[in-house]
Design brief:
With 242 residues, the protein is an alpha/beta fold. Helix content is 36%, strand content 19%. α1 links the parallel β1 and β2.
Length: 242
């Protein structure tokens, strides 16, 4: 059966990308090859008529909590981190448009010259028209992570699922990079994530998903075809839900 004829399980998704996913093999900044790989993966999903919203972090450029450690005021550091997400969003937008996709960047912080302000109804309308919408600037508030922003935007656009892209295959009981005996969960509940302090998303994001019954799929973004397989219902990564 051709891949294009697969049954779609999730028709509208919120893809959460880390800033590090754009870094590729570099130690800092944006690797064009990594951005282009992600863009091709997203294009393969859009070809199935899946509506795609994206939240991307800024850790490859600046992370607010690290700035706080380095004696930068936490509020200022968090705003700096939000601006880093805008840089990443514009880079991803460029890569997506090179793949022939129609896109919009919406920001929680007004910067009309380069992006639209976030307006929920407008975002949904863009998605309905087949445009990829990239949500930049986090929630627009300090002390909230881009994980929380992803959960919030997922609720606002009425996504079917949050797809959390990582560098490993799913959620493990221990760090799989440091411990070869780490075991991966195929399915885990919101409560287990919170009580076992599993590294999925931060507690605020998980609580928001739990309260609104928003499922999360944690998967390896670096494996070609994983996003497409996930929207088609293939059992990859870790499913987080009730």
């Amino acid at each position: 059966m051709p891949r294009e004829n697969r049954k779609i399980v999730y028709k509208r998704i919120l893809l959460k990308l880390s800033g590090e996913s754009l870094m590729g093999r570099r130690g800092f900044g944006i690797d064009p090859d990594a951005a282009n790989f992600i863009a091709r993966e997203i294009k393969s999903v859009c070809a199935l008529k899946v509506q795609v919203g994206i939240v991307v972090g800024g850790g490859n450029i600046f992370r607010g909590i690290e700035g706080n450690v380095n004696s930068i005021d936490r509020t200022s550091a968090d705003y700096m981190g939000m601006l880093a997400t805008v840089i990443n969003s514009l880079a991803l937008q460029s890569s997506l448009e090179k793949q022939g996709l129609s896109t919009r960047v919406q920001t929680s912080i007004s910067m009309h010259e380069i992006a639209e302000p976030f307006i929920q109804r407008r975002a949904v309308r863009h998605l309905e028209k087949g445009r990829v919408v990239i949500f930049a600037g986090g929630t627009g508030n300090p002390y909230f992570t881009t994980d929380t922003a992803a959960a919030l935007r997922a609720m606002e656009i009425r996504a079917d699922v949050i797809m959390k892209a990582t560098k490993v295959d799913g959620v493990y009981d221990r760090d799989p990079v440091k411990n070869r005996e780490a075991k991966m969960y195929k399915k885990v509940s919101y409560i287990e994530v919170l009580t076992k302090n599993l590294k999925v998303m931060d507690a605020t994001a998980i609580s928001l998903c739990r309260d609104n019954l928003m499922p999360i799929i944690v998967f390896n973004m670096q494996k070609k075809g994983n996003v497409r397989d996930a929207v088609c219902g293939k059992k990859i990564g870790t499913y987080v839900g009730e």
